[in-house]
User: Which sequence fits this backbone?
């Protein structure tokens, strides 16, 4: 099996589902961060700065520690470094695009539905163009094309027909405590 071992069983699926969960929450969390910056003009850029810090902590320090623990050699072939930098830039540009879409008024659920429905389509088209199947495009079975169409249609439908949000939760009512006086009368505490 290219890129992995069959001896690992279904561990890959657990990691894939971890990615689904984290990327599925990404847009909502990013929008929350942008809003919580309380800066309508520059909040998205401030949020993106902290995304970069999180990337540094997660994508620089964690692999460095892993490489040290594993006693890896420190040889980095040029091609591997170049493609990895391009991949990182593509991810960062995508994250920035999400923030710009929010800033342009895109709702988080709509933006993320389009992103996550469109990304597999782009991936499939790119993979087919760089690694065409044996026998050409005519050798591709119809369920593959149906899957691409359904992914695109699903992203469109989720964006167009998302249920309207309910009213924001009301803050809890202020608690009024009363004090009973020695004569049995009641008055507000502190008053």
Assistant:
């Amino acid at each position: 099996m290219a890129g992995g071992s069959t001896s690992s069983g279904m561990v890959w699926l657990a990691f894939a589902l971890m990615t689904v969960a984290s990327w599925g929450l990404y847009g909502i969390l990013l929008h929350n961060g942008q809003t919580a910056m309380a800066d309508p003009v520059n909040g998205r850029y401030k949020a993106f700065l902290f995304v970069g810090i999180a990337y540094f902590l997660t994508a620089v320090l964690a692999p460095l520690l892993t490489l040290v623990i594993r006693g890896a050699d420190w040889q980095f072939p040029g091609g591997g470094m170049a493609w990895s930098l391009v991949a990182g830039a593509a991810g960062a540009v995508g994250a920035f695009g999400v923030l710009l879409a929010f800033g342009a008024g895109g709702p988080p659920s709509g933006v993320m539905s389009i992103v996550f429905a469109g990304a597999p389509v782009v991936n499939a088209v790119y993979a087919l163009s760089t690694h065409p199947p044996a026998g050409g495009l005519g050798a591709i079975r119809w369920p593959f094309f149906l899957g691409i169409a359904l992914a695109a249609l699903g992203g469109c439908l989720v964006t167009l027909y998302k249920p309207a949000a309910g009213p924001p939760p009301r803050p809890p009512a202020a608690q009024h405590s009363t004090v009973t006086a020695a004569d049995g009368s009641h008055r507000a505490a502190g008053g």
